[in-house]
Design a protein that fits this description.
By secondary structure, the protein is an alpha+beta fold. The chain is 27% helix and 24% strand. The chain contains 11 helices and 15 strands. It starts with a helix and ends with a helix. Keywords: Chaperone, Cytoplasm, DNA replication, Metal-binding, Repeat, Stress response, Zinc, Zinc-finger.
């Protein structure tokens, strides 16, 4: 689509809708006309095919709110004839100059005497809308990057800042991202610089794909760069400091917006996805936002009760009260000593009691246990087990 077409064609008239038409009205009008003039329904009719192209072109502009606003603004500024290029240059009181040069001034042409100094002011308005060929440039978002990082158990619980070396594509430094060794690529004739091509799919609809000739860039190098081979992109390595939030779990995938590969032609950068691998700890385990630990206790402590000290991760030990008659495998809770949650609070430390049996006993201890066994001889801890087995 040329600059001249953009200013002179009345897309509202092409679709048969008023200038204040809603998006729904534009969509409805386009579908109706597309069905009527689609090439599949008018085989061999050149006029219908040309009419279908006009309808599609009008819809491409008016169905996009941003492009529609740019179109309306351009028409309001130039559409009344004051700056329209006149035939022959003199008739009708209109100026005779190249609109492509006018808009191209924003790309480096400047506003000289021949244009009355319009290059600077109008370049600010239209510099992002048109290139020197009069076609609409399309910013391209950078690619997403995925990387991996390994943390030890404590770093995962408390959070850590780690260096991460990444390789991605960026603008080729040799050709400044143009793909052309001289920095002068030409507009792709297939997509006219848009980077996209449309294919009719029947029923008045079309499918848009990246242009196969320019690979979606909108530009084709005249003399391909020796470094990037005309792609405009080259491998780039960088090291950045990445903050891994506290409480991350093994296998979690973290998204860092805008930290991926740089975009093209002012497009935004992609995102960085970091997959976290967490190592184990010799003492502590983890269950959601809680930490776990197994603490051995003696038989007298379990039977008689008492106070026991329990280690915490990275902090001073805590003291827990062990109730008398605590069975083996019982779990107690030390509140606020676990992993960090998303809201900044901490989970709990789950303490599981493990009654230990000494391997070696002295004579005095053995004698005491023998006395204990005789004193509890009438108690059979397995009586209920056998009774239940018979009942089953």
């Amino acid at each position: 689509m040329s600059t001249k077409d953009f200013l002179e064609k009345d897309y509202y008239k092409v679709l048969g809708v008023p200038k204040d038409a809603t998006e729904a009205e534009i969509k409805k009008a386009y579908r109706k006309l597309a069905r009527e003039y689609h090439p599949d329904a008018n085989k061999g009719d050149a006029k219908a095919e040309e009419r279908f192209k006009e309808i599609s072109e009008a819809n491409d502009v008016l169905a996009d709110p941003k492009r529609r606003k740019e179109y309306d603004d351009a028409r309001a500024l130039f559409g009344n004839g004051g700056f329209r290029p006149g035939p022959g240059g003199a008739g009708g009181g209109s100026f005779n100059f190249d609109l492509g040069d006018l808009f191209g001034g924003a790309q480096g042409g400047g506003g000289g005497a021949g244009t009355g100094g319009f290059g600077g002011g109008l370049g600010d308005v239209f510099g992002g809308l048109f290139n020197r060929g009069g076609t609409r440039t399309q910013p391209r978002r950078g690619q997403d990057i995925e990387s991996e990082v390994s943390l030890n158990f404590t770093e995962a619980v408390d959070g850590a800042t780690v260096p991460l070396r990444m390789s991605s594509s960026a603008a080729c430094k040799a050709c400044s991202g143009t793909g052309d060794k001289n920095g002068t690529p030409r507009v792709c004739p297939t997509c006219v610089g848009t980077g996209q091509v449309s294919h009719g799919s029947g029923g008045g609809f079309s499918i848009t794909d990246p242009c196969p000739d320019c690979k979606g860039r909108g530009l084709i190098p005249e003399n391909p760069c020796d470094v990037c081979h005309g792609s405009g992109r080259a491998k780039s390595s960088r090291t950045m400091q990445v903050r891994i939030p506290a409480g991350v779990s093994d296998g979690q995938r973290i998204r860092l917006r805008g930290k991926g590969a740089p975009g093209e032609r002012g497009g935004p950068s992609g995102d960085l996805y970091v997959v976290v691998h967490v190592g184990t700890h010799p003492v502590f385990g983890r269950k959601d936002d809680n930490l776990t630990v197994t603490v051995p206790v003696t038989f007298p402590e379990a039977v008689l009760g008492g106070e026991i000290k329990v280690p915490t991760l990275g902090g001073p030990p805590v003291t827990l009260k062990l109730p008398p008659g605590t069975p083996n495998g019982r779990t107690m809770r030390a509140r606020g000593k676990g992993a960090v949650r998303k809201d900044g609070t901490r989970g709990d430390l789950l303490v599981t009691v493990e009654v230990t049996v000494p391997k070696d006993l002295g004579d005095k201890a053995r004698e005491a246990l023998q006395t204990y066994r005789e004193a509890t001889a009438d108690h059979d801890p397995r009586a209920e087990l056998f009774q239940a087995a018979k009942g089953a």
